[in-house]
Design a protein that fits this description.
Elements (H helix, E strand, L loop, with lengths): L4 E7 L3 H11 L6 E4 L8 H4 L4 H4 L9 E2 L12 E2 L21 H11 L6 H10 L1 E3 L13 E5 L5 H12 L15 E4 L1 E2 L1 E2 L2 E2 L2 H6 L9 E4 L3 E9 L5 E9 L4 E12 L2 H11 L2 E2 L1 H6 L6 E2 L11 E8 L6 H4 L3 H14 L11 E5 L10 E6 L15 E8 L7 E3 L10 E3 L6 H18 L2 H4 L4 E4 L7 H11 E3 L31 E3 L14 H22 L1
Parallel strand pairs: 1-2, 1-14, 2-11, 5-6, 14-25, 15-16
Antiparallel strand pairs: 3-4, 6-8, 7-18, 9-10, 12-13, 13-14, 17-20, 17-23, 17-24, 18-19, 19-20, 21-22
Helix pairs in contact: 1-15, 5-15, 12-14
Length: 545
Amino acid sequence: MSDTTFDYIVIGAGTAGSLMANRLSADKRMRVLLIEAGRKDDYHWIHIPVGYLYCIGNPRTDWLYSTEPDAGLNGRTLRYPRGKTLGGSSSINGMIYMRGQSRDYDQWADLTGDDAWRWSNVLPAFKKHEDYYLGADELHGAGGEWRVEKQRLRWDILDAFAEAAVQAGVPRSTDFNRGSNEGVGYFQVNQKDGWRWNTAKAFLRPTCYGRPNFELWTGAQVSRLIFDSHADGSHRCTGVQVWDGHEMVIAHATRETILCAGSIGSPQILQLSGVGPADLLRQHGIDVVRDAPGVGANLQDHLQIRAVYKVKDAPTLNVLASSLYGKAKIGLEYVLRRTGPMSMAPSQLGAFTRSSPAYEWPNLEYHVQPLSLDAFGEPLHSFPAFTASVCNLNPTSRGTVRIKSPRFEDAPAIAPNYLSTDEDRKVAADSLRVTRRIASQPALARYSPEEWKPGPQYQSDEELARLAGDIATTIFHPVGTTKMGADNDPMAVLDARMRVRGIDGLRVVDAGAMPTITSGNTNSPTLMMAEKAAAWVREATAERV
């Protein structure tokens, strides 16, 4: 840390930050600093796919956030995992490659007033870094850094669920990433030869590590941004204050500071730095640089309702992993072939469908697993079972992320406000009915599925919505807390090019910039956003050089 002046400072070496650092340091004239609060991704469980079980809730790899007590969850709090290591949440997530639906991006274009976000214009950014296992076509790329493969396993019980979904009116799908993800099929995953493929492998090693103009600080937490304020009321971000574990260090950015700390970390850093709701900042004794009420607002997340069905005469992971012999067999298969349960993403089978015919597009996503447990990190149940988790893809509930103190070490208050609208409660109740309709089809009959959770005795909208609050949990997709928007949107923190309004030299490039949540898993859309932002930053550089 002897030379602390750079052209660009990127905060957060997660999904977006790793790509940003790669693209910006490709210009040898530009010095790039990448700052990561966590450690290097040299923990072995990061790289073994099933290792997410040992990374979530582990201070080695997770920020260990929790939500505030939530009325929609009947007063419960939830563990709220976020990656704290190189690769960020791509090092602990479900590895599912999912773009969402084309209408998501057309809506972003309408909300921001910028056609750059239309599906036809974001598709090239998805393809640029993609390495699709079937090769390139009009909708997929090959040869990029972000490896996409099919899963290296199958399960009879999942095949039966897929057939039951077809019998219930859901079409089959072999690719959820072609603009419409309606259908049922196995998810594609970000893996390579049976190993997790995180963004640190994809974008930092070996390219960035070999560049003399690239510098990486790990175990370094940004405490606040630094601004130059001028007499005319304008402000410019000129760098960051960083705690390196021993002392505070100031790093300077001569061109731009790019905040990629995620939907929780980015609004926290902005608020600690004086950019956020003025009343909140004054409450904590923080000088207001810019009153920005949208910072930490608009939190959206996918809430999954985990229905568990006991089955008979079906090999599930509950059974296979119940003995030392079974565990040894699973481990040996992975060692020898990189296949089997240790290569599993947390969810293997997916389905996209409608909660009712009133919806023009699929508004539900299923994650179906050949196992059951009370919660991630808890033991598997002793009986054979599968779990059909269903989430509302387009929730109307909105939450907040707000600092609780002026100390950067203190986690913010995360209040998702799940199921806080009538529409979300209705979709929750209807989604459980869709699950029951699928489970009652002939394809699953041979396994005698028995609804164990929530239980068939609950039937009314009110009962099912209340039960959803009892059994639902996050699927780890927080977005929207520093949203992009049009000039006339007072809650828009960013303009359409992800520049912070009212602050020069500062962008936020992460899932927090999404104005609305995508209709599926959020990791790869975040990469796409970083790809577009990197191009805009480099264009701005070219104009000034």
